[in-house]
Design a protein that fits this description.
Blueprint lengths: L4 H7 L7 H4 L4 H4 L4 H7 L11 H18 L1
């Protein structure tokens, strides 16, 4: 059975060779970006979380705090 080339690329998707990913604080969240976009364009796009981590953490904290205070 011949393998689909894109499937092979998906299975072999490797983000740990990308220098900008290795130095990124949100790597555990994004894992190098979307494999589909990388396969189609050859470019990695940073996940939006990278640019608003502080705001997201604050939002989650405030939401939990509000929910807990309501009892």
């Amino acid at each position: 059975v011949p393998l689909n080339l894109n499937y092979t690329k998906w299975i072999n998707y490797e983000f740990l060779t990308e220098a900008k990913c290795l130095d990124c604080k949100v790597l555990p969240v994004c894992l190098g970006g979307c494999p589909y976009k990388y396969i189609k364009t050859g470019k990695r796009e940073c996940h939006p979380t990278k640019f608003n981590v502080k705001e997201l953490v604050q939002l989650v904290y405030n939401t939990k705090k509000t929910k807990n205070s309501r009892g």
